[in-house]
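Marked as duplicate of an earlier ticket. Keeping the data here for the record.
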Amino acid sequence: MDFFEKFGEKFDSFLSSKVKKSKNRVLVKLQKHIKENWSQGIVISSKGKNYVVEFNENGQRKLTECMLSGTVEVKHQHRTLITVGDIVFFVAPQLGTDGKEFGRIVYVADRPSFLMRKSILGNHEDIIASNMQQVMIMFSAMHPQYNLRMLDRILVAVEYGNLETIICINKIDLVDLNLLKKDFQIYEDLGYKVLYISAKEGIALNAVEESLGGKSTLLTGVSGVGKSTLINKLLGMDIQKVDDITRSRRGKHTTTSSRLFHKGEDAIIVDSPGFREFEVWGVPKEELQFYFRDFEPFFQKCKFQPCSHTHEPKCAVKSAVLRGKISHERYISYVSLFESL
């Protein structure tokens, strides 16, 4: 199997279509076909304004550092031009005036899947990674304690980006596991896979290995939950550095940008920087209800259509909340998010 087929789609050829120019993009130019001197690769990390691209040469994985070409054809419609996981075409590295060799990215393929949030730097999008099959959302039982409101927001973003979900709770050695499971039972009832592990103590890592096998997975979560420790355990080496801060009992996550790793021949893991807040971006307000699985049996039964499920009379969703068919806490998450969009 070709390396790039692991992303669920061959990128051997693309249908050209006119792409509008925007001040937020590099100059975009229509290309009629993939040129013979272009090489295909996947972005595995960023390096300043440049990108590290992995490509296959005679069955061997190789890396090259690439800059953006002055003319780039872009097949997606996001403001984030390039992110980790993107399939790109590049021109072979050439010697620059500074004596360094850089390839030039000339084509960025469409993104069948992505994880997007509101940027912490302004009122625009931030694409954390693209072309993954699933997202493992990682929280910790303690230090820092999990935030279910944040989990609900991330779940919306994951489903909006056409990704599958795994919820992973780390540091279970610090709490009563039975009490912990009560808080997440609602998510298991909704069909989400929930894993309970301790990366430090090596508890239940086999369940993580099984969930990652043969798939491409984005690992994301709040700072300090132990993502780097987990990746080090999974890969069997200190790929990601973790500084143990004994006073706060939290790991200092030193990841500053997303990075792609291989686990064996059939699994890919993308580690992303930890965050403190997560705001949904891009989801139309009127479509938010479709990303709450617990609303699905009820939202079509509301008397008034469309219904926002916030103030309308004879709303089937609000009735389900009152009857205990929908979690009150999940409904509060929905209303809070609805008002923020």
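See parent ticket for discussion. Residues 1-25, 27-32, 242-254 have pLDDT under 50 and may be disordered.
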